[in-house]
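Please go through the protein record below and explain what the tokens say about the fold. Record follows.
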Amino acid sequence: MRASFLFAAILALLLAGAARPAGGAGEEPRPVRVINFPAVQQVKGQVGIEGTVRHATLVTLADLAVPPVEPSEIGRLVDGGVLPTEGFTSVVLSLGARAGGRALRSGSVGVILIPDEEEIARSFERDSLVLFPIEINAPLTQGTFRMTASAQSRHTLGFPRYRVRLYNTTDKVVTATLYAYLTN
């Protein structure tokens, strides 16, 4: 008895919902009223977005000269500047490099992104600790190959800025370019 009553009630609700007229493009516009809640959500005047909403941007750090330096030599890593990442959630990194001559020793050219935050920078400078790094590298082989490029890699961002540090384990000075495609 109870199950049949429940079934009848659900059926009646479904039929009532199906009988309602559907809204759509043929309807007249309806007035809308905005109710403001807390002060942080106040809406005044006309609300709109002009132009294209950007979801990504490319940041290029080009022509970074990197002499031979091992990634373990924290104090000697080459400073490549700051990569601003605020407002983005991920980054696709690509690294290209050109050796100044034929390398006699194979190695790699690499970039380490370190969050540009006071406490993390202090740990890096005082204690040689690399906290929360994002790293990418490209192999450079001995012989006639003077150019190299990394595979692209996607990383989740957790900080609004990163300090770019570079290393080079070959025996030649390398000119590197970092491409950071910031996305949401």
Remarks:
- The mean pLDDT is 85.
- Residues 56-183 form a domain with the Jelly Rolls fold (CATH 2.60.120).
- Strands lie at 56-66, 78-84, 90-99, 107-115, 134-140, 147-149, 153-156, 161-168, 174-183.
